[in-house]
Amino acid sequence: MNPLSNVLLQTGAQLTPDFSLSVNAQDITTNVRQRLISLTLTDNRGFEADQLNIELDDADGQLMMPALGEELQLSLGWQGFALTDKGRFTVDSIQHHGAPDALTLTARSANFLGSLNQQREVSYDNTTLGEIVAQIAARNHLQPHLAAGFAGISVLHIDQTHESDAGFMTRLATLYGAVAAVKAGKLLFIRPGNGTSVSGKPIAPVILTRKEGDAHSFNLAGRDGYTGVTAHWLSTKASKPQQVNLQRKTSEQAAFTVDHPAAKTPGMPAVAKPGQENYLAGSKENVFTLTTLYPTKELAMRAAEAKWKNLQQGHASVSLKLAKGRADLFPETPVTLSGFKTVIDRQPWLITKVTHLLNAGGFITQLECEILLENAEYEAKEK
To answer: Tens of pLDDT along 25-50?
Structure first.
């Protein structure tokens, strides 16, 4: 049984889905190909491990059960073209079920059963963000990669108390307005939602037309009426607390300005307590207040900006199902859409999640996208 069916293109040519799979560096593609029922790869954004699910036919009972912890390496694409390397995955779940008998493997891009998930007690003093990430990467046998501008940030003190490296990296990323991730043996610390690579260089955008897809779904929701985000930091000044407002420039407002019927009535701006100062991203009519008290103005600024971007991006989303699988697509890739409603086509998008599915029906790719805010400009006002 060969489940890799051909895909008929508009040109009349046929393409056949293809893949290669190895376990512990041994190629097992030939053995797997005739038994493959389905293969699903989910490429996630951030510090959520990518997940590979493989279901194999074991009706003859001849399949050997793999062991937990074995390493799989996968490439995807189409026959006649170079396959795209999708990385390495560690087997962390095995299921055998029937009848008819079948074997299901689940593997993840990082071994969360290992060192990344161990609880630790570590203090970091008089160091930099780059040195902290490098230290965590080293003890997990990963290579550190930080986006431009992060490595040199000074960190006077931070504690990792009863916290795993995975949890601490997530918290650290939130604190500095970044996204932490493990991809292909690398510990990444990158800027979210900007369509840029680890080095800070723009990722080449892709254009997707409606004729390439089987289905799409566009969602526009309210943003709870929030007009900004405020963050507090501990003031070392003896003078009256200050408030700094960061607002999107009028000419750079997001394309979607539809008011949701459930939007809240604008409220009063957040007020700093004695000994604290405020930093506001957005505008002051109805702000979302971060509860963390940050040690410096810089950290408060980064956190407020990151949350404000998150609120802006989250109110509009689009999902696409591509009839012809695109193994080359990955999260953080900018996308331009064509052939949909004008409000969809005119908005730049950013891929946040990619799911590849290979089965008897062929090879398809499903995308989830949010608003791309790379052109957003801000102006700061103090009062």
So the answer is: 899 999 999 999 999 999 987 777 78
